[in-house]
């Protein structure tokens, strides 16, 4: 599968599963925007592996609506669009205990982030 000309936004993309998704998407031709909470070194290592022409890292707390707004803006400003959103590491588990109008969803922009990505 080719992801050429696709832009992936991956929260928590500097380590673990998020890093693996970022590297995998990039290996198939995607441009990648990763967010990280606090480990700038780990995020920069991922960006270096992919290449600065096709990847950027943005410090953002995925539970903070203002940070998510900024993350989306940076992604669109850099790459012109977002095709795929991977909300990795955003929500506490277990999710099934939360009604959709209560935390973590009430103050989360996951739905907005996915909707924005679909509209771009």
Describe this structure in words.
This protein has 120 residues and is an alpha/beta fold. It has a single domain (7-119), classed as NAD(P)-binding Rossmann-like Domain (Rossmann fold), CATH 3.40.50.720. Helix content is 40%, strand content 17%. The protein has helices at 16-27, 40-50, 65-79, 110-119, and strands at residues 7-11, 31-36, 55-59, 84-87. It has a four-stranded parallel beta sheet, with helices on both faces. The chain starts with 6 loop residues before the first strand and ends with a helix. Residues 92-120 have low confidence and may be disordered.
Brief descriptors of the model:
120 residues, alpha/beta, Rossmann fold, four-stranded parallel sheet, 4 helices, 17% strand, globular, disordered C terminus
**Number of helices, where a helix is a run of at least 4 consecutive DSSP H or I residues:** 4
Report the biggest beta sheet as strand number plus sense, adding barrel if it closes. Answer: 4 strands, parallel
Order the strands across the largest sheet as they lie in space. 3-2-1-4
Summarize model confidence as the mean pLDDT. 81
Topology:
Elements: E1 7-11, H1 16-27, E2 31-36, H2 40-50, E3 55-59, H3 65-79, E4 84-87, H4 110-119
Parallel strand pairs: 1-2, 1-4, 2-3
Compact summary:
By secondary structure, the chain is α/β, with parallel strands linked by helices. It contains four helices and four strands, in the order βαβαβαβα.
């Amino acid at each position: 599968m080719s992801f050429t000309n696709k832009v992936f936004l991956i929260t928590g993309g500097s380590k673990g599963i998020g890093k693996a998704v970022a590297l995998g998407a990039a290996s198939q031709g995607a441009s990648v925007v990763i967010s990280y909470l606090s480990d700038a070194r780990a995020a920069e290592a991922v960006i270096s592996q992919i290449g600065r022409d096709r990847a950027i890292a943005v410090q953002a707390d995925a539970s903070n609506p203002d940070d998510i707004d900024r993350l989306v803006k940076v992604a669109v400003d850099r790459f012109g669009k977002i095709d795929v959103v991977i909300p990795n590491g955003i929500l506490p588990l277990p999710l099934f205990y939360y009604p959709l109008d209560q935390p973590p969803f009430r103050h989360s922009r996951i739905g907005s982030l996915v909707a924005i990505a679909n509209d771009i």
